[in-house]
Predict the structure of Terminase small subunit.
Amino acid sequence: MNERQERFCFEYAASLNATTAAIEAGYSEASAYSQGHDLLKKPEIQAKVAQYLDERRLQQARQFTLANDQAISALLEIISNPRAAAQARVSAAVAILDRGGHSVINKSLIKAEVNVNELSHEQRAARLAYLLELARSRRIASDTPGDAGPD
């Protein structure tokens, strides 16, 4: 594979447009359409494009994981900040539950036996952990397997 073909593979993986990739790789605009079409028929080109696409997917997955971790950390900071508004802490907890695939806690199912304003930070954290576990267990109990169809 020559340098121009290698560049075509890289550009095609970025744009998914053979004509644009051919032009970016240095082929003339007049022949870019046919060059791109012909290049994509070659097995070595297809393999290299697949490699670049796999690398891009992996990079995007890493970036998403990092962004997700940062978002969770920010939400946890809000939840644990005793000076944050109660609504902000609740919204952050709901966002974490939502990201984890858990349903939001139904307030009518929880019997408030204590005033949360009278709890220490550690007691609030323990209560939140308990409620999260309660919501998770109810979600698991309510999950039913999908219709698998006939055997």
